[in-house]
Task: structure prediction
Amino acid sequence: VNELAAGNLEAAEFVRELKTIVGSAQVFAGDAIDPRYRRDLLGKFPGRPGYVVRPASVEEVAAVMRLATASGLPVTPLGGRSGTVGGTRGVDGGIILSLERMNSIREVDVSAHTMTVEAGVVLQAAQEAAEAQKLLLPLDLGARGSATIGGAIATNAGGNRVLRWGMMRDMVLGVEAVLADGSIVRSLGKVLKDNAGYDWKQLMIGSEGTLGVVTAAVLRLRPLPTTSQTALLALDSFDKMPDLLRRLEGRFAGTLSSFEAMWGPFYEFVSEAQLIRRPRPMRTGHPFYVLIETLGAQAERDRSLFEEVLAEAIENDLIADAVIAGSERERINLWAVREELREAFRSLHPVVGFDISMTLADMPGVVTEVEANLPSVLKNPIALFYGHAGDGNLHIVVSLKDGGAGAEHAVELVVYSAVQRVGGSVAAEHGIGRERLEFIGYTRSPEELALMRRIKSALDPLNILNPGVLIPVK
Ligand code: LAC
Ligand code: ZN
Result:
């Protein structure tokens, strides 16, 4: 396991040096590494790290990076392990740099509407700290209880409210990062506007740990909405979806925060699996369902507008049915069909999941093409379609239960070829990781990939930052 360290430093010597930096309780090597550092959420990418190191400060991260540079050992930054594309598996024998101990919320600045947090802060903890000051950290996703801010920055996370507040890159005002050579670069200002030169922090955001280790960030907060209106809608044809989305966005004048689509079979499958615990919010049998939510500050006005707009949509035949949440419990129940998927999907395992993007108008064509081509690579394919339709982000989960050795790859070819034809993206919000390395060129041009390689080699000439992730190195 430790053969990689043999280059410049013996493994034992290397461990001693790591321990000098972070303390002996924060370094694990070889067989002493806890299994949780060897697998990710899906258990799909078991890794064999040589070392796990858990620094507590940016200076310690910098010292680890200097040591890694001196020894040539690869470093993979690790957040909450909720990734799905193998981005934190690491290199066998390499270093896993866990940011879990850098979990302090340094400040919530109520008047500036910002929070300054360390990379290892769990998303939900950051959300709650903002809420305690009547402020909103808009990023929200199903993995909020484990995903960290550093991971959300490294992957440019998306989630359920992108339609209104954008992705992670839209709410990061400042970043502190450690580069491959151990230099610390800090821009933790709170201003919204800063055109003084290149916006280098945007390079770090979404770089999946390949350009630097994000150690802290300043996030932009918003006034905390005090009311929510949530409904599950049924549509009898996909053609109505773009129209419905634009109509709702217009009528709700900036307060539409979520527009989540579920294809009929997805809705039926998930709500069926949840029946033991939850009533099904609406009958099955509609071809499409959409979960919408507005967030506002005027309970009665928001409510009557919500009801009025949905009544109009029914009159205009844009939607076939609507169930409006009448309480917080009903709201949670509606969201569960879209969000509590892990247990429901268990019977489908092993699965391959996709998060691809395209215009909403292109979405039904992609789904039709995928459905038409799956039977040629899988016996009795089970594929469920859902996603953040308001963002043009389609999720697909395909069961590989009846598939042979090459099934996963064959399914990927089917899906990514369909995306390529409409000019979307093979990775809308989860990143490229290791799983999609082969496919980044499906929706990025050779010139774009060449530019990415130039950036990578300028910032990480030794290729020690998360090698094997995001960009294929020739
Ligand atoms: C979701 C995850 C898969 O939207 O991104 O459920
Ligand atoms: Zn998603």
Q: What stands out?
A: The chain has 15 helices and 18 strands.
